[in-house]
Specification:
The protein is an alpha/beta fold. Helix content is about 40%, strand content about 10%. It contains nine helices and eight strands. The strands form two sheets. Strands 1, 2, 3, 4, 5 and 8 form a six-stranded parallel sheet that branches. The protein has a two-stranded parallel sheet with strand order 6-7. Helix 6 links the parallel strand 4 and strand 5. Helix 3 runs parallel beside helix 5 and helix 7 packs across helix 8. The termini are far apart.
Length: about 260
């Protein structure tokens, strides 16, 4: 089958029930967003995560970065953790951008725009992709993943690489020993292959105590010497927050400004 390069092609793979549900949800969000605005208070940090920037999403992604930059400053995950640990003063509003799954279009489409807007970003990758082993992620079949050289290019351009397990394994399905292996082995692979310190971890399907046991995974991330754990629980983060339970907001690059206002 041909490689998917457009988001519209990916959406067509969804079943009709999901497409209808998405359409109805977007209508509801449009109505509810009429009075919504990005939080205007100070001293907050919002961590956002994308999965892909397909060819037909590039212009929308650039529009979104313009929108975000008008409301807050971009900072790295390292700086975010310093804020949570009270090592860095918070004197404004911040966005920290992250990407999950390690798709090839992170380099071909996202990277040039991130560099243009001076947006430090961390890419959480299933470590096996840099060993040429393709993860089995639903709806992501026939999509290219980052290579070892791609990851080096991201690093050379000031971006960070974090762990997303070895092969995108749902941690809730594993025992503690297996979870430890996923966290430890992915860190080792990334550090050995890329010659960097792998500091940050993102569990696949990241709802605490639904997709992974927060207590167990927090204990292991600390033991294995990660410096942060991000989830997929939406919401604001503040100075002094727990760096091992960071809230993140999922964003799709094709979303319009009213959708950003509603969710942020």
């Amino acid at each position: 089958m041909p490689i998917l390069n457009n988001y519209s092609d990916l959406v067509r793979k969804y079943n009709w029930k999901r497409q209808i549900r998405t359409g109805l949800r977007d209508i509801a969000i449009f109505i509810m967003s009429a009075s919504a605005n990005v939080n205007s208070s100070k001293e907050w940090l919002r961590v956002l995560f994308y999965h892909h920037i397909f060819d037909d999403e590039r212009k929308d992604f650039e529009r979104q970065l313009k929108f975000l930059k008008n409301h807050a400053d971009f900072i790295s995950m390292d700086n975010a953790v310093e804020i949570f640990e009270n090592k860095l003063k918070v004197d404004g509003r911040y966005f920290c951008l992250t990407f999950d799954d390690g798709l090839k279009n992170c380099v071909t489409n996202a990277l040039p725009i991130l560099l243009e807007y001076k947006c430090p970003t961390i890419f959480y990758i299933p470590a096996n992709i840099i060993q040429n082993i393709t993860p089995q992620i639903p709806y992501m079949e026939n999509i290219e993943y980052l290579t070892l050289d791609d990851c080096k290019k991201l690093i050379d351009n000031g971006m960070a690489i974090g762990s997303h397990t070895v092969n995108h394994t749902p941690l809730i399905d594993l025992n503690e020993s297996e979870v430890r292996s996923e966290l430890l082995d992915s860190k080792k692979i990334i550090e050995t292959k890329l010659q960097i310190e792998c500091k940050h971890f993102a569990p696949p399907w990241g709802k605490p105590n639904k997709h992974f046991n927060l207590e167990t995974v927090t204990k292991l991330t600390k033991e294995i010497r990660y410096k942060s754990l991000v989830t997929t629980e939406r919401g604001l983060n503040f100075r002094g927050a727990d760096p091992f339970n960071i809230k993140r907001d999922h964003i799709i690059a094709s979303w319009k400004d009213y959708q950003l206002r509603y969710f942020l």
